[in-house]
Amino acid sequence: MKENESRIPVTIVTGYLGAGKTTFLNHLLKNTDEKVAVIVNEFGDIGIDDQILEKTEEEIIEINSGCICCNVRKDLIDTLSMLAISRKEKMIEFDRVVIETTGLADPAPVVQTFLMDKEMIEDFVIDSVCALIDAKHISNHLDQKGEALSQIAFADMILLNKTDLVSNDHLTWLIKRLEKINPKAVTYLCENSQIELEKVLGIYSFNLQEKVEVTPDLLINDHHSHDDEISSLSLQEHRALDLRKLNLWVSFLVQMQGERLYRYKGVLNIEGIEKRFVFQGVHMLFAGDELGPWGSDPRMSELVFIGKNLNKQKLEEQFRRCV
Ligand SMILES: Nc1nc2c(ncn2[C@@H]2O[C@H](COP(=O)(O)OP(=O)(O)OP(=O)(O)O)[C@@H](O)[C@H]2O)c(=O)[nH]1
């Protein structure tokens, strides 16, 4: 913690869809001694990350149905105000706020939230903007320009993740490419988002001057828009799903559309499986695993797809056939 700093430190975790942000958050929550208030923002209408995050003592607040970098930014400010007031009133206790942005968020407007609003400036201080990067898929995402590029350009720390999925030569090439985009950021290599927390928390690497160099209108203009071709589809189903059919469907789907399926994830109610089943993928790589028991929650499948030019009607029809 910074000396003589009474404001609440904020860590902004950014990175493209599927890069490893939630995995990082789980690692952080499990290993830190600090009490953390977590704000998770998801692009789809249904929050899946909240279910995947291993529950600890922490406050976890979800902001869904849009990106905190644009249409739900007011929700972010309201949430932060509520946290600051509750802390002052000693209703909740926490040492830090960690914000996990959606994979489609431009971090600049999120950072702006802490620089433009008087209340936010008084109560919060940005510790760092940390970008998780998927070593396997980032080159494709960068070739398409857009948010993946801003996330790297705007980070003060890069966690180059999923190093297990690429060769050393590719890593060396990638590090050079990242350095060209953002020569000032510190880069750490990691697998499953595992990193010593002292490298990430309490380092106060956020430097406003550097960010203004990257985004000259940072303190003036708050307009931001997304690539309209990218959208999300959220599906819910109470009836149990057939795992064999589901596997066949998804295998077919990724073969045919993997390139434009940026992210799909869900918590599923599978016939014959007692526990909740987490299913998730990034482009053509997907996996499923059993999660904890349903407890008192109703057994229900919730699945979110995020991709380019999704044929939503067809996806929904195919999903229902897995019942
Ligand atoms: N092989 C491999 N898989 C990883 C690694 N890190 C994370 N994953 C997997 O990648 C998938 C996406 O990880 P998440 O942590 O959910 O990624 P995210 O950035 O939160 O994704 P969004 O919420 O869609 O933005 C999950 O299936 C993880 O288990 C890694 O280092 N290697």
TrEMBL record:
One of its GO terms (cellular component) is cytoplasm. Keywords: Chaperone, Hydrolase, Nucleotide-binding. It catalyses: GTP + H2O = GDP + phosphate + H(+). It comes from Halobacillus andaensis. This is Zinc transporter. InterPro entries: CobW-likC_sf, CobW-like_C, CobW/HypB/UreG_nucleotide-bd, P-loop_NTPase, Zinc-reg_GTPase_activator. GO terms for molecular function: hydrolase activity; nucleotide binding. Belongs to the SIMIBI class G3E GTPase family. ZNG1 subfamily. The lineage of its organism: Bacteria, Bacillati, Bacillota, Bacilli, Bacillales. Residues 230-323 form the CobW C-terminal domain. Pfam families: cobW, CobW_C. It comes from the Bacteria.
